[in-house]
Fold:
Amino acid sequence: MDSYDVIIVGAGPAGITAALYAGRARLRTLVLESVTPGGWAIVTDEIENYPGTGTTRGTELIDTMVGQAKTFGAEFRSGEVSAVSRTEAGLEVSIGNERLGARAVVIATGTAFRKLGVPGEEELAGRGVSYCATCDGPFYRDLDVAVVGGGDSALQEALFLTSFAKKVYLIHRRDEFRAVPILRERVVAHEKIECLCSTVVEKVLGEKAVTALAIRDLKTDEPRDLPVSGVFMFVGLEPRTAFLDEVVGRDERGFIVTDDAMRTSAEGVLAAGDCRVKLLRQVSTAVGDGATAAFAAQRYIEDGEW
Structure:
């Protein structure tokens, strides 16, 4: 069984930063990612609140971060982690039938977008229902689309879609958006965006592709069909932590509970980034988590104290 000092599960900004710090500490470090490094940052068209970079594309920022971590010896490979467990020899990470040993493990698996859970959503996924405007926006050039949600992600993606769509309906069940003021201001001022607050989506309509949304005004209780060719769902996040089962303590939503040093309830297992309980989920907070987790892992490996 191949063994490492630190295995990092997840290669978003938190995981990559943990790899950078662990590599610089001369720890044998492996980063496992199911698809490609970057997390949600890689599908973010513009990042303008990461200090020192001005406005940058998510892909460019991630490429730079990965290259820097590799410079210090961190290894990256693809693999879907199915379990983390403890053996007499230490910690073990399972990828299919393969087992990898580790002295410390950092969980940095991030989050997935929550499904809205209405009829037609599952059936038309990939045929007009999307969870990534950066990925699918170009397919809707000069067409009408809808974005469902009221947080930062929803408003950012609505603004991004205006580069392609003829019109963007922004649907939110509350009276006001929860996004930061600067995004609210940009959305309200944009001529291509129409805000439909106090409105819910009850069904995604269409047979082979999305043709409309069945929506209802919560104030008047009036239902109507809204013709659109695509709908982008941004109604919250769910942590990618199901594979951990009872390994670490999690809150009622599945987010991992840690202390200030990113230590979980399981000795030798740390968590960083969006998958843990925290107030703000941004690239800047993720890299701080990753740095702290790697430093705490180094201390644990060197001193054996948890």
Observations:
- The chain is about 25% helix and 25% strand.
- Residues 48 and 292 are 24 Å apart (CA to CA).
